[in-house]
Amino acid sequence: MSELWGVVAAAASSALGGTSIAATRYLVGHLDPLAIGSFRFGIGCLLLAPVALLGDRRWPERGDWLQTAGLGLLFFALFPILFNASLIHTSSARGALALSTLPLLSLVVVAALGRERLTARKTAGVLIAMAGVGFALLSGLADAPPQAWRGDLLMIAAALCMALYGIWSKPVISRCGPIPFTTVAMAVGAAALILISLVRGSFDAVAQFAIPQWSAALYLGVIGAALTFYLWAFALGKASPTSVAVTVTVNPVTASLVAAAVLNEPIGWNLAVGIVVVGIGIWLATTDGRNAPLSGR
């Protein structure tokens, strides 16, 4: 049951993350990628901090401080830089498809590190889910800016950051809980982004913001950071890294729906078929009876 709730939380996080792709794709035309990350995770941290301070919550122990800070820089500083920069060069559909390599990357890394068993069912589920994503976005993949491959590669690098974060953060989350860990890690990443943005003058464009730009920035902070990454951390505390990662294939579906509505990026009938295939792949990968980690590392 714990694994199931983790997968449900991860799927919800991925669905919300898909909407963030479209919001980011809109905002990169108005603001530097560093400043976008600063807004997203700065607002997210401010919202999570009061929740983390309520009650008797366990914060990262002294022995975990360096690892928590490192993970914060990896996921809440380097990841958004790569993520946001990728969407300057590619479409929401292609960017989301590139991000959906996350479960495959996670599968390879956890197997290489000996954290999970690499089973045929789990591998098949990941590949089927990714195939479903590709089919769902088929009609929108060709409609991309020139040299979109640059953005695709940047998004795959972002997915690798996400995979490593999912694997290395799980032990710390199990010791201190998802909200305190996410708050501290996000604070470290946000502080780094804000400092670099101030030095580079990345916030200068904010003076030209109107209601649509402020709305997108607030949405990224409230939904795209605080809620999305709390759910992701909660999921990592309950389920295996691969089970959590495979749900990211939900992300492109919501990204394409929002992009179609807001950015007029095309979708077709194949989206419905792709959604079904993605669901089958997630079910296969997350219902493997041998899904348990090899050790408590």
Order of helices and strands: HHHHHHHHHHHHH
Helical stretch tally: 13
**Could you give the count of β-strands?**
0
Secondary-structure class: mainly alpha
Can you give the mean pLDDT? 82
Taken together, the total number of domains comes to 1
Low-confidence stretches: 291-297
Q: What is the share of helical residues? A: over 70%
Which value, in Å, is the CA radius of gyration? 18 Å
Estimate what percentage of residues fall within beta strands: under 5%
Span of the ends, CA to CA: 21 Å
Overall body shape: globular
Biggest beta sheet summary = none
Domain EamA: 4-136, 150-286
Pfam families: EamA
Protein name: DMT family transporter
Membrane topology: Multi-pass membrane protein
What does this structure look like?
The chain crosses the membrane at residues 33-53, 65-83, 95-113, 125-142, 148-167, 179-199, 211-232, 244-263, 269-287. It is a multi-pass membrane protein. It comes from Bosea eneae. This protein is mainly α. It is 77% helix and 0% strand. It is built from 13 helices and no strands. The longest helix is centred in the middle third of the chain and has 29 residues, at 148-176. It starts with a helix and ends in an 11-residue tail after the last helix.
